[in-house]
Amino acid sequence: MLSMLTEAQQDTLRALVDRIIPADDFPGGWEAGVGDYLDRQFAGDLSHVVDDYRIGLDWLEAEACATTGTSFAALAATAQDEVLRRVEQGDVVVDCPVDPAAFFRAAAEHAAEGFYGDPGNGGNSNGVSWRMIGFEVTG
Amino acid sequence: MSVHDVIVVGAGAGGGVAAGVLAEAGKSVLLIERGRELACEDVPRDHLRNHRYTRYGHNTGPSLEGNPRVWVDLDGREHTLRPHEDAYQNNATGVGGGARVYGAQAWRYLPGDFEMASTYGVPAGSSLADWPIGYADVAPYYDRAEWEIGVSGDSVGSAKQWPRDKDYPMPPVPLNRQGAIVRRGAEALGWPTLAVPLLINSTPYAGRPACIHCQHCIGFACPVDAKNDSQNTLLARARATGRAEVVTEAMVEQVDTVGGRVVGVTYVDRDDQRQHARAEVVVLAAGAIETARLLLNSTSSEHPHGLGNAHDQVGRNLQGHYYPGAVGLMSEQVHDGVGPGVTTAITKFNHGNPDVIGGGMIADEFVVLPIIFWARNLPPDLPRWGAEAKRFMRDNYTRVARVMGPVQEIPSPDARVTLDPTVRDRWGIPVVRLSGATHPETVRTAEFMYARAGEWLAASGAQRIWGSPPRLKLSGGQHQAGTARMGDDPASSVTDRWSRVHGHDNLYVADGSVHVTNGGFNPVLTIMALAFRAAEHIARAW
User: Fold this and answer.
1) pTM for the whole structure
2) CATH class of the B2-40+92-541 domain in this structure
3) Where are the domains of chain A?
4) Nearest CB to A136; choose among B224, B337, B385
């Protein structure tokens, strides 16, 4: 899965998705299939943003290392959220070839599509998000 | 070259009705449709690609490649668009057209909707006009559409505002929890409510079953064929006569003339071969944008600017519907999953409002898909990531109510369809170029209705209300209308009171193009009614 990304990029992506949709008493984004959704979309409608993801994920890792001394995926959740809040506000230290805040916004949209979209798109495994919110398909 | 009595271009709401009436009147009919036949399973329940949410595409035609349009934005920038992009103003293609996937609201226009200019005056810069016909001229055909296609509604409630000779053939689709809650709110405000009339079977009707109240109505095809349109009624009747031939995946390039007189059409078939078909009468029902394109593309030495366009009127006055609405976080659960979801309308604001022209209907909203809720219904200040966003979805998907509705637009002659000078579609045909915007008075009316939406939710128990205020834009989309409007004066209209193109006794239009104004209601029942009326006229005259 996600063979278009390096292993390091995949680790960062997985950590990012699980902060966009964190686990609580329902699964987080990754467990619910957001990675499977992205894997399919990166070969389809989102093929044009794969390069942005490569750049954005490498950058996020560099930014985390520069500001915390630790790999993004290895940070505690609260520290990851702190990094992401600064990304959201454009308060970053490492230069990035793409707009980091825009990359983060797009990743949040894509994660939501994978999590709340229909399971036919590869995410929302077994309709878990629909059970969570109370959307039932009866016919 | 094939020869027929009548050629109908477009198998949507209007074209299917015309084909049915004419085939039953004994005419041989060729119906040409650019899309495919669409069985229910051909219209996927893809939440990211449907006519309610076109994030990456949609679930009918036209295909995303080879069908561009050009849009000129309000700053004069040109954009070449694909069909699923908003400003393309798309409507579904396929047998059945947009009605294959519609929400099926079955509104008549009010008597006053036909008399907007004489009621309100004509604001500067607007092309607002009265229709050349009135409600009484259309009413018998509303009856036919309601009975022959099938509408569920509240006859007694409707008759308080609409003179009607016949009741609806079916009682209203049942209320759901959201409807019950907003009815209480309306009662608190003293606003009368009306069950939304729907082209959906509340009981078995005409050999097809009743609605099963699923959650995938608008934007999708009905899994039990309880949603009614011309495709499963009048077009089925046309086919049963043996006199109707339906050619799909065929693109009409132009209406052909000889010596200035309409003789048929040229189309490109599914094998990319150009075909010529001949008929005594041609009926255009391709939708307000594509019908205008076809008229403009049908040039000849006698008609250098296209058919019906001697006075530069074709393609002007494009209208759709502003759809202001509000979202409210309620103190109780409102979503019970009972579809289609739209149940309850307020029609007291369609006319007679202080300081605005016209008005609009407002109603509770269809069952909302979770991803659409995420994309469009979250409070503006809620983070789009993190535990708080997930918690809001979890706690409040079933506690958010929505009311919204179509505003009667004030037409502008500069809101228009022309032909792009350079961009061609996959068949090499010049494509639509969209430009301009509605008249600013439309925005004022929409702002008025936007405020009413919030007021209604507040009275219904909303703890918090949010939404997007209306902004000046070009309107069209699924409710597209006005580009070949009716009138008695050929200098300011394209079609006459029988939907016949001025100067051509054998060229008719049977879609929203002929609407002079587009009502403060979903337009499809009027499109169907006027198609009945035009087709009867053809059957009599030819």
Assistant:
1) 0.98
2) alpha beta
3) 7-16+29-121
4) B337
